[in-house]
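Write out the bound-state structure for adenosine-5'-diphosphate.
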Amino acid sequence: MLEVSGLSHTFLSGTEQSQVLKNINFTVNKGEIVALLGSSGSGKSTLLNLMAGLMKPTEGSILIDGQPIERMSENKLAEFRRHHIGFIFQSYELISHLTVRENVELPLVFQSVKPSERRERAMSLLTQVGLAEKTELFPSQLSGGQQQRVSIARSLITRPPVVFADEPTGNLDTKTEKEIIDLLLELNRTLQLTFIIVTHESEVAARTQRVIQLKDGRLAEDSDYLHGENETAAALADEAPPALA
Ligand code: ADP
Ligand code: MG
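---
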């Protein structure tokens, strides 16, 4: 489903060059849910943005469904992203003057799906994320956790095989964080979706099948557990300093 090989990335700021990712290699199978863990500045967002085709790497390759996305032209990549990649942001990124349902339908507008089908698919997903009663409200009328549910529904509306989430619970309290992680785990199970979730919280990582940890731009750990509670992540949770961020 996803294959990252020899991936390195260097940012140029002024005359300074900084290599933030160094020779990253891993493979994710269809239906896996992976936590990408690491302290602030370790390169998590950069890696996620590269995998989601939002930036091009300085070195290495990223295959999604067997296709090398770093070699695609801008147009081809944009089209590929619309069909194959879902993205969930920490800050939801909803459009304030559109209703909940219109926000969820938006990616289908770009795919020219007809209004009746857009509506049907949006309503079905909004029911699945527990917002059947809120479809005609505006984002500002929802709690943070509910807004993140809208953003999750929007990321799934194009039925992408892989969904990337950058600290999806970063702005939420502990109880809401747990509910959102429950939802992602349930969607992973019921829809066989592949999820890559960036987090700096080891409690989130402890609930996924697999943890990939970055340290100073290198892959420091890749624990590949098949089911349930993740012991490596649990051990990390014990060792981690209270303010990893
Ligand atoms: P994380 O998400 O793990 O906190 P990031 O991937 O955001 O880490 O950042 C990794 C490193 O890359 C940091 O040192 C950050 O300052 C640097 N960085 C991120 N984006 C840019 C950019 N656009 N230009 C220059 N440096 C950047
Ligand atoms: Mg980040």
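---
The mean pLDDT is 90.
Residues 169 and 177 are 5 Å apart (CA to CA).
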